[in-house]
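Schema walkthrough. Field components (list of strings):
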Amino acid sequence: MAFTRINSKMVEAQVLPGQRLFSQRGAMLAYRGDVTFTPNMQGGQGGIGSMIGRRVANEATPLMTVEGRGLVMFGHGGHHVHTIDLHGDTLYVEADRLLAFEGTLRQSTMFMGSQGGVMGVIRGQVTGQGLFTTTLAGQGAVAVMAHGGVIELPITPQRPVHVDPQAYVAHRGEVRNKLSTALGWRDMVGRGSGEAFQLELSGQGTVYVQASEEKL
Amino acid sequence: MSAQAGGPVVHDPYTLPIDDNVNPYAFSVDLKGQWFLQKGKMIAYYGQITFNGIGHGALDGLIARNFHSPLHASDWVVAEGQGKLLLADRSFDVNSYDLEEGNLTIRSGNLLAFQPGLSLKQSIIPGFLTLIGTGKFVAASNGAVHFVEPPIRVDPQALVGWADCPSPCHHYDHSYMRGVLGGIRALTGIGGTSGEEHQFEFVGAGQVLLQSSEVLMAEQATGVVPNEPGVPGAGHPGGQAQQQNIPRMPGQLGDLQRRFGL
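Field assembly_structure (string):
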């Protein structure tokens, strides 16, 4: 595990030669040892192709490469930080929620429409994910940011989970998600419950939910 | 802090903690005598407590003992009496620290209150205050404070303060600005910056206090320093020195810039 939790808003990462980290620019709080921070033009892994892909997909968060030998502390904007260990599965998360992740993870961009076609696109709009989202796959650790603490909700085939789109942070595993609407005549006349849109996640995996409806 | 289940904990004057946190965002002072508070940080109190601005009448003597300059003391209030006093600041994390014959330098906006056993001085470093002596003080931070020991390099915005450390100095990382690509980057700005080129470096024995985010708290005025040669931050009226640094236009048009207020 590359990340050690110091408190709810700060993590510490060990950097060793040959094991690099990617982190959001400006998220370093302090470091010990001989560590360099290089702005990463591609916004993550891969070559120019991935860079253009991310720019087009608007998933190009400014990242920097952290290399060297030492200990680095990360935190950003007073947001709560949650660390997630990946063991060969895939994490779906918005790029601007990524605080730091290990270089061993494969980063790529996914079109929301590839999960559910047009409804996927609409879902992306409602959750604020946009048309694209970032995926991280492989072995390694990720630190994600959230407003308020993060709750992990397991998803099993018998028990789908409904999540407020604004409180959704990330999910992992073999999960299908669809936007369920409960629009009625009350919403049309402005007397709705304010919970007309929900994200329904079903399958096998975990969804991460923040204790707030505020976006980052 | 307290039990989450069963609803909120109800406090009365006897169950309020003695010089300890009520929750991460509020601190309870068991007042017997005097405490110094920054203006506007008291949220509630039990008992007989009076609040007076410093520097009026009978409290004049305190200035000499606990403050470095009368100009700055006007931002502080003396709480006097018996009772329980609750302190908080815009739901930032609040913590108390004990000093024993020690010294600690802290960012001016983060300090909320301190005991009269400490004296408050203005640091040589602009925007920081130094506490010297024995006693307790209360400070706010954005995210819990983390103590680290030098050698360490700290992001300027994450620094809350330091104790006993002799060497706060600037450190610049520019290794990625070297070479051909680095040169192009520096000239054109393509590729951007990492935002981590500049840190404060601490070496030696002591402790450094970090907050867990890079959101600064509003700075409090620390008072002015005497306008003497050799005093850092002493206002040699900023204008003159700066104007000389503005590159002049070629030819004799130079002073046009100044006339247009550039």
